[in-house]
Structure prediction request, 381 residues.
Amino acid sequence: MDFGFTPDQEVLRTNARKILQEVCTQDYVQQCDTEARPPREAYAAMAENGWLGLILPEEYGGVSGSPIDIAILLEEAGRQYEELAVWMFRSMVWGGYAILSHGSEQQKQEFLPKISSGEITVCFGLTEPGSGSDATALTTFAKKAEGGGYIINGQKVFTSGMDISDYCLLVARTTKANKQQEGITNFFIDTKSPGIEIQKIETLGHRAIGTTQVFYSDVKVPENCVLGEVDDGWRAADKYLWYERLCLSAARYGAASKAFEYALDYAKNREQFGQPIGKFQAISHKLADMKVMLDVSRVLVYQFAWQMEAGKASRHDAAILKLYTSEAYKTISDLGLQIYGGYGYCMEYPMQRFFRDSRLAVIGAGSSEIQRNIIARSLGL
Ligand SMILES: Cc1cc2nc3c(=O)[nH]c(=O)nc-3n(C[C@H](O)[C@H](O)[C@H](O)COP(=O)(O)OP(=O)(O)OC[C@H]3O[C@@H](n4cnc5c(N)ncnc54)[C@H](O)[C@@H]3O)c2cc1C
Prediction:
């Protein structure tokens, strides 16, 4: 069994880390978080280096990278700034991966090169006020319009980055079917379409990109906005959600690694009672536990990436990955804050940001409770 990376993957990691350290300094990260502004300069640098098209074929501006490659890239981006990694992932998966998987040739040619070059960014509109964990209970309706196209009415909530994105992968109902998962269609829509109203939601973390609620009132979209098959969109969206689990877990493993490094460094340097606090067993055992959680997260991320590449990934593997890495990130950030003592509670120090951002990890994209349900079901429970 080989746990190593290829020479090309090592180069990708080294180069990504070097550029990210240059363009996404910790002062810059703090500024983006405080001012709630997206890390546009860092995003542009990722595009300039060709990384936004990592998983796309060359003909669309990419390099045909693998799930392991995207995990490496997003781990490195997450290590430097989770918000940057999450922003990249949304365009790469809800835009790039979705269009590559189910788009028409015309959609591929129109959008994929622009995603690779960073010219357009993409967000994802699935959740509604009445459909969170029960995602397919969505009611936003896209009705066939006379003369072609669709007219969309409804309300979405938590469409992150809708206000700063050019396109949204919108999941809407097109037919009232007997089964909830049926009669759903994916649309790739222009976020500036008339009839769309976006309202920002104030949140604890995830501040640089942020999230929104979106009202769709008689939004007319052309026929070629449909992505994939009409009424069979859930099967496609479900496929993208697996990729989402991998990308978010890689980004959060990266962020947890950074939080751990801060905490370890602090424990070695902060002195109380005449010695570094890391010499107290109460602190050193916290760090030992954090290190174990990180190592398990890493194994799970790359094992799942390998499973995806080999076509061996299963729904419950994805749930185990999402559950463990997000809970580990939350715990590591919480313990890190405790190790920082009072300074961990201050906005001037970085640990509070990890604490706030990691709280979302166990709620968004399928909460920990939902992941446990999936795992339990796979056990025949
Ligand atoms: C900051 C932020 C960004 C987000 N970004 C996006 C985005 O870009 N696009 C998008 O579409 N969505 C996004 N979401 C939505 C996110 O995926 C949902 O919040 C999440 O799926 C949970 O749905 P809910 O908030 O409605 O909670 P609910 O489903 O109402 O759940 C409330 C509680 O009940 C528990 N629960 C629910 N059902 C069960 C069950 N069957 N068994 C056990 N426990 C259960 C949940 O685990 C949770 O603890 C975002 C959310 C946030 C907060």
